[in-house]
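Running this now, will post back.
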Amino acid sequence: MKKNPSSFHKELQIELDAFIQSQQKIYPENEILKIDLHCHDYNSNVPDEILGRILGVPETWLESKKLLEVLQKNGCDTFTITNHNNSRSCYEMIEKGHDILVAAEFSVFVPDYHIGIHILTYGFTKEQEKRLNKLRYNVYEFLQFTHKRDIPTIWAHPLYHYAAEEQPPFDFFRKMALIFERFEVINGQRDTWQNMLVKNWISALTPEMIDEDAARFDVDLSLYTDRPYQKSLSGGSDDHMGIFAGHSGTYLHVPDLEQRLKSSSRSALALEAIREHRMVPYGNHQNIEKLTIAFLDYVFQVAMYIKKPDLLRMILHKGSVQDKIIAIIISNLFAELKHHKTTMRFIKLFHKSFIGKRPKKMTQLLVKKVYKPVFREAINIVEAHDLEPDKMTIQFYQAINTISNQLNSILFKRLQKKVDDLLEKPHFRELRLDLELEQIKLSPNIRDYIKSASQFDKDQMKKITDFLDGLSFPFLSSTLILGANFTSSKVLYNSRKTLTAFSEQLGKLEHPKRMLWLTDSFDDKNGVSSVLQEIHSEIKRLELPIDLLVCSKTVKPDEHLIVVRPEAEFILPFYKDQSVRIPNINQIHALFLENEYDRLICSTEGVMGLIAVFLKHAYTVPAYFYIHTDWIMFAQKALQLDIHESDKVRRYLRMFYSNFDKLFVLNSDHKEWLAGHNMNFDKDQIFQTAHWVEEQFKPVAKCKKEVFSMEEDTKILLYTGRLSKEKGVMDVVTVYKKIKEVYDSVKIVFAGVGPAEDELRAKLPDAVFLGWVNRDRLPGIYSSADMLLLPSKFDTFGLVVLEALSCGLPVASYNAKGPKDIIVHGSCSYIASNVREMTDFVIGYFSDENKQVQMKQNAIERAANFAKEDIMDKFLEYTGLIP
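Update: finished.
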C-alpha cells in the first residue's frame, strides 16, 4: 500500500511538541512546581458510565499512597487527588501528614444544552464541598459560587462531554468559553487531535470575540470572572490505574520559589499559582495507547475484585433495559472468568507487571513452553517502568500487541486443527445449512431450557469439553486485549462528530478523508472479485484516498491494496466454493488508526462484514455496505432453503445491514426491496450504483475459426459464467435444443466452470467447453459469438451483460433484477420471461440480418452509458470523499 505522503498524526505530534517546548520557556526552571492536576484513586468509586454504576464497580482500586508514589517517581513535587465529586482522599492523606492540595473533579450539568461536563476544582473547604455537590446540577450557579469564593476551576477535557443526546452545537462551546477561565488542553487519556483542537480554539479567542459572544448569549461576565480575557491552559494525566500518573500535568510558576517554600507549603503555593493563572501544561503525544493500557488493567482489576452483584438491585437501578441486559451479560462473563484458573493467573501476572512488580522466578519455571514468549513480554512491561514516559508507553503498548498476536496464533492453530478434524467426520461433511438454520430457535419459556439441560448427556458434554480443551485460555485472554483496544478507541472517538465539526469550524487540524474498503473476496473466481479488481485499478489510476483490505494467502500487496494473512481458514460443508478466512482483528484495528481512515465500506457479508461493524463502533466512523449478492435468491436456489428458512436469512440480513449508514445496491428492484416493508430501510439511506467494464471490452476483429475452431457461418450461442444450477444454466439446454430445431448449424459454447459441467456435457455432447477463461480473452470470445444467453434469475447487476454489449454482442436474458436495468428490450438485447420467450427472441433475431446489424450497434451505444468516470464520481460523492 502506498503510504500517505503527509501523516496527520505526525503533523499533530509536531504541533504538540512545538507547543510544549514554547510553554516550558515561559517560566524559569527553578521557579516552578510540577503537579499532575488531574488524577484519581480508589475514592473515585461512582463511575459516570451507567454500566459501571449498575455493576457496582468503582473506577479504580488504586490506593492513595500508591498514587503518590507513582507521581513522585514521575517527577512531581506537588500533589493533589481529583476524585469524582469528593475530596476524601485529599483529607485522608493530609491527616497522615502529606501536603496535598484539596481538589475534586465535579460532574456538572449544563441545563440549557442538556450536557454533562467535568470541572476540576481546587482549594475548597469541607463545607464548600457540600455546597458544590448541591450546585453541580447547574453549571452557572456552580461557577458563580466558585468565583465569589475565589475557588479556581478548570474545564477538564472540554471536547469530551457526557449525556448529550446528540452532537452539541458550536454555540455550546462559545458560551462555555465565556464562563471558564482555565482549560485542560493536555489530557493524558485523550488523543493529541482532541488536545490540540482545544489548544487552537482557546488560543484563538480574542477580547472582541468574547465581548461579541457575551452580548449574543446575554452573559454577565463579572458573575464568573474578574479577568474575562485571560484564558489559561493546564494539563493532567487523568490517570485512574496508577500507571501514567504524572506523565502529563502542569508547571506552576511561583516567583522566588526557594524563599517562599521557607514559609509556605507547596499546596498553598500551588493554589496561589492556579488562582493567578501562572500555569503551563506539559505532556506527550499519544493516540489510543495509554487508554488501551488503562482499560486493560481496569478489566484485570474488575476480574480480580468484582463481587457478585445483586440482580434485584441491577433491575431496579436507573438505566435503560438495554443497559441492564448488557450489565447482566458482563456480570456473567466475569463470573465465568473467575472459574478459569489459568486465565486468572494470567490476569494477576499482568496486573502486577503493569504496576512494576517483577514476576517470581518460580512462576517463570511453571509456565508452559508455548506460553513462555507471553511471559517474556510481562518482563518487558516491568522493565518499561524505568524508561522515559513516552518510551514507556510505546513499550507497554508494543508488549500488549505482541501478547495478543502470540495468543491469537496459539488459539487459531489449535482451532484450525480441531475444525479440520471435525470436518473429516461424516456428520460434518454432510452438514446442511437448511437443517442447521431450522435448529436455531430460542424458547421464551425457562422450563424448556431446564428440560434441555436435563437431556444433555455426558457424551455430549465430553465432546464439548474436548473441543474447548486448549482454546479457553488463549481465547479469553486475547478477547480481553481486543476488548481493551475496542473500548479505548470507542471512548476516544465517541465524540468524533464533535471533533470533526470543531476542526471544520476552526479551519484547523481537519482529519483527512480516507476510506478503508474491506472484502473477503478479491482473487476468487467470481463476479465480486472481478469488480473489485477493476475498482482497485481505478483507485490506483486516480490516486483516490481509498485502500482495499483483503485477508488472503495468495493475493500480493499493491498500492492501495492491503493484504493480511489469515490466522485460520475453513471450507464450510454446505458452501465449498468460498473458504472462510479469519484475520487478526487487532491487526486490522491498528491499521485503521495507523493509516488515518475516517470511514469504511465493506463488500462481503462474511468475516470482513463483522469486522466492519466492529471498526464502525470502535472508531465511530460512517460505515457503508456495497451489496453485490441477492442472498435471498441465493439461499433458495443455491442452498435449497425453503421459504421459512429463507425468511430467517432475510431477518439476519436486516439486522446486519442495519449497522451501516448507507447501502449501495446495483439495481432498482433491490433498492425497492430494501426500502419495502420486509426490510424497512430509509430510502435516503439506499444508493443505486453500477459497474463498468475494463477498456479492453470492445469489438475485436476475430474470426470464429480462430476463437472457436468453427466456420464463419456457424451461429454461436454463448454462456459465460459459473456452471451451476442456481445460475439457471440447465435452461440453456432446452433453449439450445429448441433453436437447433430451426437452425441446425447453431452451436453452444460455455465459458466457465462449475458443479453442473458434467451434467451439461452429458446432455449436450456437441457443446464446446472452454473452461475458466482469463479476462483478457473474453473480448475476442464476445466479439466472435452471435448471442449471449443469460438464464440467471438472481444476478444483482449482470456484469457479463455489460461486457457482451461493450463488444457488440446482444444478450437474451431473463427478466432478472440486474440485467433488466441494463438492457433496453428489443433495441440492444432481449428480456424474456421464460424459456419459450427466450427461444423465440433468439430465433427471431437470427432470422433478420438487418436487426442483427442494428442491435449490435445499439449494444455498443448502450454500454457506453456505463462510464466509469460517471460511476466513480457519484460513488465518491455518496461516500463523502468529494463534496
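The chain has a mean pLDDT of 90. More later if anyone needs it.
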